[in-house]
Design brief:
With 226 residues, the protein is mostly helical. The chain is built from 8 helices and 2 strands, in the order H-H-H-H-H-H-H-H-E-E. Helix 3 packs antiparallel against helix 7, helix 4 crosses helix 6 and helix 6 packs across helix 7. The N and C termini lie far apart (50 Å).
């Protein structure tokens, strides 16, 4: 972590900011399909943030489910002290609030104040949570600073060394190329939020549009009729 100046600026807020939102009447006004989409949409957002966000989300839920929210009992099982537990809960709160491990405002990664040993201890106390990390090939190190690639502590363009999940398997795609295709998408009235852009080895581009359908309907999809 020595390559990142002032690591403390990336620590999770202590305490995390909690703002109550009066969303119940609005949520209840949705159709069942819309309510389901709201829940399923969480995973879409997680996958848009970072490679490890969905696994960390499942890790937190596995800990919560295993002890039914009785964190003091989990603390005893894991053998961690009060401060380590509070540091993890602060991190988990900020993570759930941002739907990922990068700030929704600022696009910088935040990391736990507790040690990696605390994460290991919690995982060991709840086999399901450990399994989540192992199956997704998410090391505990992914919770923390990317010391070997400090630029990836921020979301942004790949050619500037930053992290983005919008350009899969395209390490050499440039900001200029992205902006040119963005202009093309604007002409077609396509929103970038539900797309992915891939640059192929031969220098061509593939625009992937998220959809619940394998094929566009007869009336056409987001890009219009076929």
């Amino acid at each position: 972590m020595h390559n990142i100046d002032n690591l403390s600026q990336y620590y999770a807020d202590q305490p995390p900011t909690i703002v109550p939102l009066l969303v119940k009447p609005h949520f209840e006004a949705l159709t069942n399909k819309q309510k389901l989409a709201a829940f399923l949409g969480t995973r879409i957002v997680l996958r848009q943030v970072s490679p490890e966000s969905e696994a960390i989300f499942d890790f937190i839920l596995a800990l919560q489910d295993a002890y039914h929210g009785n964190w003091p009992d989990l603390q005893k099982a894991a053998g961690i002290d009060d401060q380590a537990l509070q540091d993890f809960l602060d991190y988990a709160t900020q993570f759930l609030g941002n739907a990922g491990n990068y700030k929704g405002f600022g696009d910088s990664k935040f990391i736990p104040r507790c040690s990696p040993e605390t994460i290991d201890a919690l995982a060991s106390a709840v086999p399901n949570s450990k399994e989540v990390l192992e199956k997704s090939k998410t090391p505990v190190a992914a919770f923390y600073a990317t010391a070997d690639e400090p630029g990836k502590m921020h979301l942004g363009f790949a050619d500037q060394g930053h992290l983005s999940m919008y350009y899969p398997n395209s390490p050499d795609i440039t900001q200029d190329e992205i902006e040119r295709i963005g202009d093309f998408m604007a002409e077609k009235k396509l929103l970038p939020e539900n797309t992915r852009l891939k640059k192929t080895k031969d220098g061509n581009f593939q625009l992937l549009i998220a959809s619940g359908l394998a094929k566009p309907p007869p009336e056409g999809g987001d890009a219009g009729p076929e």
